[in-house]
Amino acid sequence: MFMPEHAHNKEHAILDAAEHEFLTKGFDGARTTSIARAAGVTHAMLHYYFRTKEKIFERILDEKMRLMGESVLTAFGTPGLPLSERLRQGIENHFDLIAANADLPRFVVNEVFSRPERYEAMRQRIRRIMEPLLAGLQHDLDEAAARGEMDSVDALMLLLDIISLNVFPFLAYPVLEPLLGDLAGDKARFLALRRAENVEIIRKRLQKTPQR
Amino acid sequence: MFMPEHAHNKEHAILDAAEHEFLTKGFDGARTTSIARAAGVTHAMLHYYFRTKEKIFERILDEKMRLMGESVLTAFGTPGLPLSERLRQGIENHFDLIAANADLPRFVVNEVFSRPERYEAMRQRIRRIMEPLLAGLQHDLDEAAARGEMDSVDALMLLLDIISLNVFPFLAYPVLEPLLGDLAGDKARFLALRRAENVEIIRKRLQKTPQR
DNA sequence: ATATTATTTAACAAAATTGTTAACACAAAG
DNA sequence: CTTTGTGTTAACAATTTTGTTAAATAATAT
Predict the structure, then answer these.
(1) CA distance B105 to B72
(2) Is residue B2 over pLDDT 90?
(3) Residue A66 phi/psi, 5° resolution?
(4) A3 CB-near residues (< 8 Å, 6+ apart)
(5) SS (HEC) of B42-98
(6) What is each CA distance from A101 to A98, A108, A177, A186, B18, in whole angstroms?
(7) Is-contact A172 B126, C-beta < 8 A?
(8) CATH number assigned to the domain covering A54-205
(9) pLDDT of B66 strictly over 50
(10) Any residues with CB less than 8 A from the CB of B19 and at least 6 apart, and which?
(11) CA B107 → C1' D13, Å?
(12) Which of A56, B30, B55, B96 fits a disulfide with A50 by CB distance 3.0 to 4.6 angstroms?
């Protein structure tokens, strides 16, 4: 029976169960006993493998923050395309990545943004990921503006526009749902419309104001 | 010593302390003993006035949800102005109301959006507040579009654009802060820029695409 | 085979947390 | 003054929750 020794069955089962528990209930609402039950192990095993609830949580949080940063990078990182096309693809990729991890935004808002000590530890990582991306984007935006192809904008403001528009609907969906009228219940169709709207609003934001 | 009997000193002190505790820590993270300590009463008083932790929480949640709905209504409710001006004022008022209650969005995202049973109870209220507002806005948008003054848009999509853009920066501020560069630490200045950006992006969204 | 190390279990322990209760204080009403 | 109702306190209780530990079992190495 060969099995790579890093893939402890139970350790992995615990991490899977913990991910679900922490993502849906948050750190304070999560119960180690509930994680153990879902993983099919006694709760003493949690402590054997991870010592404390905090340590399991950190494992999950680290992974999710990495995914979050990665999603921004891979979404907007495609080079070799005209800027407007790169942005359109970036918005769509970013939207799709969030759609595929729809509970991630709320988790990050809950667990990171509300605890200064947690995001203190991530400041550096965030900067190292975002600053080069912003610098490159700003460079391209400035060039396009100098050629008169686009309105001049600040890269951070533009990225914040995009992320706000892409993320917020997933946070607010439960409250939105009763307002959707004819497309209530048809989440997929709403999301498709929303994705298109986000592309369109950013396209128009960058459009040069017509001279009159 | 006259004192309106509904203004029990301690009852009010408990509600104040509970508001702070629940807003900053959420239902699961909040401790009734901590609320009692902050209010300067024994924790038995909490149960005397409110029976259970749940009941105190509901009081706070109800008030905050009302404030949330009210903020949208009062922000966009000003009649008798041209639509573009009404929208500009609406965006600015809504932004300012959130800025004055900066911990509200996270609270609502945490406590309502993640608990189906909680927002189930609010569906009706949300509909009764939002549907007339949306219908009125859609009417005006359609008129302006028919006159050729504006691009044609769906009112719900437009409102979601605005709320996304206004709310998200407050949710994400802790993560944004290290990226602000020269205006890091100067939250007021960043928020002023952000408010202006939100007005501008919506203005351009509604702008008719130039014929070519 | 034996020794050593890793994994697993069940029972226990400590602390925290929400909620209850009986007694007490005190003002107002009769 | 006595009664009645409200507010208040301290002590207690029940449960939950995280974490520990000693003993049992399985795996691995010597």
Answers:
(1) 13
(2) no
(3) -60, -45
(4) none
(5) CHHHHHHHHCCHHHHHHHHHHHHHHHHHHHHHHHHCCCCCCHHHHHHHHHHHHHHHH
(6) 5, 12, 19, 18, 33
(7) no
(8) 1.10.357.10
(9) yes
(10) B60, B63
(11) 33
(12) A56
Task: Please choose, from the candidates B18, B30, B106, B61, the residue with its C-alpha nearest in 3D space to the C-alpha of residue A29.
Answer: B30
Contact residues, chain B, for A126 at CB < 8 Å? 175, 178-179
CATH 1.10.357.10 positions along chain A are 54-205
| Cβ within 7 Å of nucleic strand D, residues | A 30-33, 43-44, 47, 51-54; B 5, 8-10, 41-42, 44-45, 48
CA distance A81 to A78: 7
Kindly report the pTM of this predicted structure. 0.92
Residue A211 DSSP class = P
User: Does the pLDDT of residue A37 top 50, yes or no?
Assistant: yes
> CA-CA distance, B11 to B18, in Å (whole number)?
10
Whole-angstrom distance, CA of residue B3 vs CA of residue B74: 33
> For residue A2, what pLDDT is reported?
37
d(CA B31, CA B27): 8
Q: Would you say residue B4 has pLDDT above 50? A: no
Across the interface, whether the CB atoms of A167 and B168 are under 8 A apart is answered yes
B-chain residues near A173 (CB < 8 A): 113
More confident position, A177 or A92: A92
| CA distances (Å), origin B2, targets A67, B12, B13, B49 | 60, 17, 19, 21
Please state which architecture CATH assigns to domain B1-51: Orthogonal Bundle (1.10)
Question: In whole angstroms, how far apart are CA B37 and each of A115, B44, B49, B54, B205?
Answer: 22, 11, 15, 18, 51
Q: So what's the pLDDT on residue B115?
A: 85
What is the location of CATH 1.10.10.60 in chain B?
1-51
pLDDT on residue A211? 54
Within a 10 A sphere around the Cβ of B210, how many other Cβ atoms? 11
- The answer to whether the CB of B147 falls within 8 A of the CB of B82 is no
Q: Which residue of A has its CA nearest to B166?
A: A164
